[in-house]
Design a protein that fits this description.
This protein has 11 helices and 10 strands. By secondary structure, the protein is an alpha/beta fold. Strands 1, 2, 3, 4, 5, 6, 7, 8, 9 and 10 form a 10-stranded mixed beta sheet that branches. The longest helix has 18 residues. The protein is globular and about 70 Å long. The structure holds ligand PBG.
C-alpha cells in the first residue's frame, strides 16, 4: 500500500547519484542497440544530407563500420541496400549477388560476433518505389509480393544473415517467410517483424538515404493509420501467430503507448525503431544549439526502453554506445 507524506518522502532517494543509481528502474546498454546501415553498390562513402552523420556505404565500408560497431558493443546491424538498377519486380532484392547479400558476406568476415539482420522489402529495388508488385490499376498486390519477399528472406539467409526483418506490411508475409526458411534448412533464423508499422511522415529522410521514395501516391494502403492502437496489437498478435520472434513497433517516440501495450499484452521481445525523422529533428535542434544533443539522445533512448522496448533500432547506435562506454 502507498504511504503518504510525511512518512514517505520520495526525495530521500534522489539526494545523491549513488542513491539514484540504486533505485534506477531502466537502463540502456550498447547490446540493446541495432544500427541501420545503408549499403550502396558504389565505392566509398556518401553523406545523407537530411541525416547528418549518416552515410551510404560501399560493401567494404559497411564491413569496416560493422567492425567498429562490434567493438563498441553494439548488438546488431540492420542492412538496407541501394542497388545499381531497379525494375518493376524489385529483382535486386532477391538476387544471389544482390547488394545486401554481398554486404552480409563481407560483414560476417569482419565482425563475427555482431548479429546481422537484413531488412526484407522491395521498395529500394522497385522502379516505382512501392513495397510490392503493382496491379495494372497501380495497387500493391499482396499475395504475389509475399512470394518475392520469401525469396528475398531466403537469399539473405543463404548469404549468412542471422535474422530477417520484413518491413513491407503485406498480410501473411511472416507465415510465408517462416515456411520458406523452414523448408530450406533455416529453421533457426529468427524473424523480427515490423508488426505495428505506421504510415508515418517521420520516414521522410530515410527515403533520401535509401533512395526509396514512392514515385506516385503514398504507403497508406499497406502501412497503418497513426490513429490506431488496437490495430497495432492485432498486427502484433497476428505476426506472433505466424511465427515472428521479435515484434517491432515503428516509429518509436510517437508510438510509446503502442510499445507499452504490445510488451504488456504479448510478453514477446519488442524492438522499437527510432526512425530517420526522429533522428534528424534531434540533430537539427542540436546543431542550432537549442538542445543538449547527448542528454536529449540518452533521455530518448531511456524513454523508449521504459515504455517496454527491449531493443532499439537507431542511427545513433554508435554515438550512444560510445557515450555509455565513455
Ligand atoms: C522500407 C522501410 C522504410 C523504413 C524502414 N524500412 C521506409 C518506408 O516504409 O517508407 C523507414 C525507416 C526510417 O525512417 O528510418 N519499407
Amino acid at each position: 500500500m502507498m504511504t503518504g507524506f510525511p512518512a514517505y518522502r520520495p526525495r530521500r532517494l534522489r539526494r545523491t547519484e549513488r542513491l539514484r543509481a540504486m533505485v534506477r528502474e531502466t537502463s540502456v546498454e550498447p547490446g540493446d542497440l541495432i544500427a541501420p546501415l545503408f549499403v550502396t553498390y558504389r565505392t566509398g562513402r556518401y553523406p545523407v544530407e537530411a541525416m547528418p552523420g549518416v552515410e551510404q556505404l560501399s560493401v567494404q565500408a559497411a564491413a569496416e563500420e560493422a567492425a567498429r560497431l562490434e567493438s563498441l558493443g553494439v548488438g546488431a546491424v540492420l542492412l538496407f541496400g541501394i542497388p545499381e538498377s531497379k525494375d518493376a519486380r524489385g529483382s535486386g532484392a532477391y538476387a544471389t549477388d544482390g547488394i545486401v547479400q554481398q554486404a552480409v558476406r563481407a560483414i560476417k568476415e569482419q565482425a563475427e560476433q555482431l548479429v546481422v539482420i537484413t531488412d526484407v522489402c522491395l521498395c529500394e529495388y522497385t522502379d516505382h518505389g512501392h513495397c510490392g508488385l503493382l496491379t495494372p490499376e497501380g495497387e500493391v498486390d499482396n499475395d504475389p509480393t509475399v512470394e518475392l519477399l520469401s525469396r528475398s528472406a531466403m537469399s539473405h539467409a543463404e548469404a549468412g544473415a542471422d535474422m530477417v526483418a520484413p518491413s513491407d506490411m503485406m498480410d501473411g508475409r511472416v507465415a510465408a517467410i517462416r515456411q520458406a526458411l523452414d523448408d530450406t534448412g533455416f529453421s533457426n533464423i529468427p524473424i523480427m517483424s515490423y508488426a505495428a508499422k505506421y504510415a508515418s511522415a517521420f520516414y521522410g529522410p530515410f527515403r533520401e538515404a535509401a533512395g526509396s521514395a514512392p514515385q506516385f501516391g503514398d504507403r497508406k494502403a499497406y502501412q497503418m493509420d497513426p490513429a490506431n492502437a488496437e490495430e497495432g496489437l492485432r498486427e502484433a498478435w497476428m505476426d506472433i501467430e505466424e511465427g515472428a520472434d521479435i515484434i517491432m513497433v515503428k516509429p518509436a517516440v510517437p508510438c510509446l503507448d503502442v510499445i507499452s501495450r504490445v510488451k504488456r499484452d504479448t510478453g514477446y521481445p519488442v524492438a522499437a525503431y527510432h526512425v530517420s525523422g526522429e533522428y534528424s529533428m534531434l540533430k537539427a535542434a542540436a546543431e542550432r544549439g537549442w538542445i543538449d544533443e547527448e542528454r536529449v539522445l540518452l533521455e530518448t533512448m531511456l524513454a523508449i526502453r521504459r515504455a517496454g522496448a527491449d531493443l532499439i533500432i537507431t542511427y545513433s547506435a554508435a554515438q550512444v554506445a560510445a557515450i555509455l562506454g565513455g
